C-alpha cells in the first residue's frame, strides 16, 4: 500500500474515533453544570416518582443545569451503583446526587468521586457517619428524619391497638441507614405504647419478598394484630399476604413513602397509614442544594426535609 494512502486511512480513523468519543459524553460547552442523579431500584415506584420530579425540575430550569438520571435494577445491586458513580465521574459531571443502596459500601467510590473534584450530595438513605469519618470524608445529607417519620406512623397505629397486642416489623435492607432508622422509629412507638414485638424480619424493600415474609409471620404468629412495613412496596406485599390468610380487617398494616399504589388501600382501610417524604421533591432538594453550593462556593451542610403522616 502506498505510504500516502496509509497516512490517509490513519487520519480518517483518528477523526472517526474522536467523533465517537465526543458523542458518548455530555456536552461540556454549554456552560451549565452537569448534575447526575443516581438512585436505587427503578422498579420501585418511589424512585420512579423521584426521577420524574427531578426531570420536571430540570425542564423548568433548563438554562441553569443539565441532568443525567440513573438507577439500578434492584435494591441490592451495589456493584451496578458503584459502576454508575464511576461512569458519571468519567463523563465529567460537576455534582452527584445519590440515594445509596447501602450506607457503607458506596463510600469508597464516592471518595474517589470527591477526590476527582465532584461535589457529592447524599439523599434518601444516609451514609454511615463512622465509615465517612474513617474515610476522612464529609458528605452532606439532604433528607427527612426517617426515625421520627416512622415513629409518627406507628403512633397512628398504636391508637388502633391496645397494650399487650402482638405486632411484627418488616424492615428494609438491614445495612441501609434509613431502614435502620425506620425500624427504630417503629420500635420507639410500639414500646412506648406497650405492644409486644414478636418478630422483626427483612423484606429487602421488595413487594414479593415482603409477601413471603408476611405470610410466614402470620402463620407462625396467629395473634399478630399489625405489620409495620418500612416502605410501601413491602406494605403492598404484606396486604396481599393478609388477604390470602383470610385476615383482612383483623391485621393492621402501615408503610412508608406514600406511593400512588398505596392510596386506594388507604382509602378502603387495607392499609392504615404511611409516611410521605415527598418523593417527587426529594431529589429536587438535593439538586437545589448542589446548585447553591456550586454557585456560591458555600460549605456543604446537612439539610432536613419534611415527612408527614398520611391516613385515610
Description:
Helix content is 47%, strand content 19%. The protein is α/β, with parallel strands linked by helices. The strands form three sheets. A six-stranded parallel beta sheet has the order 2-1-3-4-5-11, sandwiched between helices. Strands 7-6-8-9 form a four-stranded parallel beta sheet, sandwiched between helices. A two-stranded antiparallel sheet has the order 10-12. The longest helix is centred in the N-terminal third of the chain and has 21 residues, at 3-23. It is elongated, with a radius of gyration of 23 Å.
The general outline is elongated
- Going by CATH, the homologous superfamily of the largest domain would be Response regulator
CATH topology of the largest domain: Rossmann fold
Give the termini separation.
Answer: 80 Å
Main sheet summary: 6 strands, parallel
What is the topology, as strand order, of the major beta sheet? 2-1-3-4-5-11
Helical region count?
A: 11
Q: Name the helix and strand elements from N-terminus to C-terminus, one letter apiece.
A: HEHEHEHEHEHEHEHEHEHEHEE
Architecture (CATH level 2) name of the largest domain: 3-Layer(aba) Sandwich
The mean pLDDT is 91
Work out the helicity level. 40-55%
Q: Cα-atom Rg, whole angstroms?
A: 23 Å
Topology, number of strands: 12
Overall tally of domains: 2
State the main characteristics.
alpha/beta; 47% helix; six-stranded parallel beta sheet; 2 domains; Rossmann fold; 312 residues; four-stranded parallel beta sheet
